[in-house]
Specification:
about 50% helix; alpha/beta; 10 strands; binds zinc ion
Amino acid sequence: MEEKAVKFLHLDLKGIVPGIDRFRKYLQYFASLGYSGIVLECDCRIPWKCWEGAGEILFTKEEISSLAEYAESLNMEIVPLIQCMGHMEWVLKEEKYSHLRENGYYNDLCPSHPETVEKLKEWIDETFALFPRAKRLHLGGDEAWHLGSCPVCQAKITSDPLHRGKMGLFTDHISLLANYAKEKYSLQVMLWDDMFCKEENKLLLDEELKKLPADTIFVHWKYQTDAEESLAETAACNRIVWGASALRCSWQNHFVHALNFVHERFANISCWEKTGLPILHTTWGRPNNLWNPYGPWEALIPEFIAGGKGVKEVEKHPWKDFLVLMDEAVKACDYKKLENCLAEGEKLSCSDEWEEEGKAFFLLGLRYEILRLETKGHLELLRIRAVLEKYGRGDPAGCEKDYASCREKVRLKIEKWEKDLEEFWKRNSLSDFEEYRDLRRAEFFIAELFERKTDDKE
Ligand SMILES: [Zn+2]
């Protein structure tokens, strides 16, 4: 019964994250919203000894320890998350660790390589040393897309006297690590359950799952509205189940948008609320380490409120109507709707500093969406004029001149936007500014628009 009120928040540090002081303030905010724990996925952001030479370090281990201690002082449990097979891109992209890739792929560790398990045990040791008060450890275990595809793994599967296929390979590996964490550190292990749910042979699954510690928590992640119906998949596993929503995960054409679709997230959270299960609200920073950062946490203030206080709370929020407008405008990629939404956004009232910054990011995001459409329009015009010119319809003294001056206006607007973006990043002490700005620039078609003149001369 006690677990019914569990509302954990997953923070994925491979995305855009705040500096240490701002992070502490965020923890305070999360506690005030009612989260009872944080699942912390440090990923590539701290100097792991066992993965020396890999990562994009942002925090020292001391800083992470102090954050954990602070979260605990706010009555939030800290659960470290490390991956043990799939989503090891940040390590496996390095040449130094290329021998551990499953069949050459960057995302999976090969479970048959003798070094893999040794490394992972070291990682568990290092994690426990960093989080000595942890009661649970999340071992990941999702989306091992290339499981069993290398020659060594395939030979293992073929020679398995029990004919357990890939599931045997998977559970042998996972249970070895889960039992190691359980026996050595008394940690209750959490696992994403998608790899188990996929198994069609339920008799085999039943046998294989007996190898895991009895108290292992299966975290069933479903990020669309079909969460409740999908629970039948995990019921076959017969384990303690937590549900996982997404406060942010990949959305349609996420790489071109600064703003995600808020109501899809509310619908997903609402679905999980109905199940009465303990919930882990995930906050993904990128689709994986080789893809784009989604945006700062400031973009997720309504989602943080909905996850912590419940969707009913945001339904009463003064931003309610604006959020509907914003979703509609961004989805429609409609200039007039976006302009209207921007005007409405400027009038939003804020009840705390988090909402102030959330509002500031929404305004920046809307300006970006508008500029993206404007630059796209200008680029289309340039291309059409180039074709017309070829057919003797050039007009350098007339419309070409007007278009050029319009383009100059857009260029200045972009300059101003980038300056405001940088200021926002600095004010909130956020990481990865250049990468984020350059990705947005790629969508402004900047090179094509403003460097065309030089190209022509060549
Ligand atoms: Zn292999």
